[in-house]
Amino acid sequence: MRKFVLFDFDGVIVDSLWLAFGTAQQVHPHFTLEKWLPMFEGNIYANYDHSECTDACKPAQEDYFSIFSSRIGEIVAFSGMPEVVRQLSAKYGLAIVSSSVSMDIVATLKRLGLDAHFADVLGKDVHTSKVEKIHSLLSRYEARADDCVFVTDTLGDMLEAEEAGLDAIGVSWGFLPKERLVQGKPYRVVDTPQELLAAIDEYFARTIAPSSIS
Description:
single chain, alpha/beta, Rossmann fold, 10 helices
């Protein structure tokens, strides 16, 4: 049975934290980093906090994504991730499950020369629930949950992966710090792209206990 690696995009493959936060502040001027980041401890669309909005806010999601999309050319890949993606795609099926817009992700992957390595890109336009998107990929690939692993930088993604029956591997270079990620009980949290490559191989080989966290 073929194995599949499902990736979050922002904060895992590309370094978009400050662009995303800056865009969120343009739409919601009262947001601080301390107020915004905890929204990623669950589903971002369920957690998005409009409770303190004023007349200065632009509450529509379209406002956020129109600003963000206009600046996607500024996004760069994390050092080492393009090579890791290339190496993984030689062994596993790869897909992206993201809260960003699919078209923007595809455009960025093409610019980075990585688009050919991903079989599917499922953004928020497909569904805002990552549980639903994971289920759709399992059905499409005729795969079992334990034939897949989800790579992410947020606690919310880990919780949605768990609900869909998947284990997660966390990366510490994204939106949420390691101490928050371990609360999602991932298979492992890694600190470098090369550690990620090794962790995925080990996960599918089951050479170490699934509960082990570095």
